Amino acid sequence: MSPSGWCGSPALDMAQLSESVTRLIEEFAKLPGIGKKSAERLTYHVLRVGSHEALALADAIRDVKQNVRHCSVCFNLAEGELCSICSDPRRDRGLLCIVEQPRDLMALEQAGSFKGLYHVLLGRIAPLEGVGPDQLTIDALVERVRTGEFREVIMGTNPTLEGDGTALYISNRLADFPVEITRLARGITSGSVLEFANKEILADALAGRQKF
Q1: Is 200 inside a domain boundary?
Q2: How crowded is the C-beta side of 71, counted as CA atoms within 13 Å?
Q3: How far apart are CA 194 and CA 196, in angstroms?
Q4: CA atoms of 203 and 181, how far apart (whole Å)
Q5: What angle do CA 68, 83, 171 make, to 5 degrees?
Q6: Residue 73 backbone phi and psi in degrees, to 5
């Protein structure tokens, strides 16, 4: 079979493939949202492209695993002690937006309307999944607010049952501090996630935030 016929072929018999190809298909299939057919297409794309392009992908994956860590202050993704946002002197250090995951932070940044700092929880409280407050970065958040000069803390958790519960728990933990606690406006549909909201909706949600 020629390389040009790979991508359009019907479902493949794994026993007919080389061990290396089979392994790559199986590894791609472990990715979220990638089924067996998509894994086969990705594998044959890697086989078709030049060695330089394929190895560049491998190098990028290796670099991410070796170099990327969590920011020591906000727990965003970083390649040093601090992320690019925490180390940026132009950010408004009186504003703090709390989000669940780094991808939520990136979604808000793409909206381009928020110029403050962030705190990434690395999850949300989900008792049915065995995730409690101690497994998140809530204690570090409380310490940041206690020792910082924040005038406003924005609850940017996802508008889901778990996200709202997490925001309520955090607001109670911060109730004794002299900061205004707000939340994103409900222009973001209940049950949705920030990652999939467009930048206009996110910008409106930030601009229309309200007291929590």
Answers
A1: yes
A2: 23
A3: 5
A4: 18
A5: 110
A6: -105, -55
Residue 202 lies in a domain: yes
Is 79 within a domain? no
Q: Could you give the CA distance from residue 143 to residue 125 in angstroms, rounded to a whole number?
A: 19
Number of structural domains found in the chain: 2
The CATH number of whichever domain residue 16 belongs to comes to 1.10.8.420
In terms of DSSP bridges, do strands 152-155 and 117-120 run parallel, antiparallel, or are they unpaired? unpaired
User: 185, 208 in Cβ contact below 8 A?
Assistant: yes
**Residues 6+ positions from 37 with CB-CB distance below 8 Å:** 11
Range of the domain at 18: 3-66
Residue 125, in any domain of the structure? yes
Cα–Cα distance between 209 and 186 in angstroms, integer? 8
**pTM score, two decimals?**
0.73
Is 47 in the same domain as 141?
Answer: no
Q: How far apart are CA 26 and CA 35, in angstroms?
A: 10
Per-residue pLDDT averaged across 5-24, rounded? 64
Which helix (DSSP H) or strand (DSSP E) does residue 103 occupy? helix 102-111
Mean pLDDT of 146-174: 94
Which CATH number covers residue 204?
Answer: 3.40.1360.10
Does residue 208 surpass a pLDDT of 80?
no
If asked whether residues 200 and 141 sit together in one domain, one would say yes
pLDDT at 112: 86
